[in-house]
């Protein structure tokens, strides 16, 4: 068994993974509806102090700022924050961008009215650490809002498909889609957050003509897929990886071979911090 990876090295690898490919273009291609969905569910209004954790390119941060909230967008990967700055400028909104680790947020206790994350904080490896930080920086009576892919939905299946080819996870790491499990959220937050919204929904994706175009898009743009395929290639298993991803796309296509349609299930969770 390899020795534990130092935390600084682990974070550097995560930053590099999310900076690889072109995640901003994935957001523009089919992920845009998720940010506004979370902002609406959190009932964010003018003057609210909002923190978006693992904000990426600001898919939730920017809609929150458009509602008049004072928004801080934080993310481990500076390249994603830079893309978000450009998006915000194009949208004519002003918000604060801070490079930050979701497991060690650089903010004071009880600093924000709303702490949210849209398919972001779920990818930090140590779930309990992240949950503790989300609670710590949220004011009592404030809102914690999360939108996460589910374990039994399409992205959960994608991670199971990629798992045998990916580098081994660091010690103590948990699978990202667990955040999309109601039971897991209750285990993480206990009585500290009372969830009044726990709703499963699906993001419909019709951006790809053929089913396997979805997989090609992920291989070119999505950091976790790029990392898994690179690891497979090092052991001569790249063709095996490609075949597994092709089968995955065919299995999850809900359209036709010439007109692909996918349904990506997520869990919307909104609660009040005690």
TrEMBL record:
<dbReference type="InterPro" id="IPR041698">
    <property type="entry name" value="Methyltransf_25"/>
</dbReference>
<dbReference type="GO" id="GO:0032259">
    <property type="term" value="P:methylation"/>
</dbReference>
<keyword id="KW-0489">Methyltransferase</keyword>
<keyword id="KW-0808">Transferase</keyword>
<dbReference type="GO" id="GO:0008168">
    <property type="term" value="F:methyltransferase activity"/>
</dbReference>
<dbReference type="InterPro" id="IPR029063">
    <property type="entry name" value="SAM-dependent_MTases_sf"/>
</dbReference>
<feature type="domain" description="Methyltransferase">
    <location>
        <begin position="50"/>
        <end position="142"/>
    </location>
</feature>
<protein>
    <submittedName>
        <fullName>Methyltransferase type 11</fullName>
    </submittedName>
</protein>
<dbReference type="Pfam" id="PF13649">
    <property type="entry name" value="Methyltransf_25"/>
</dbReference>
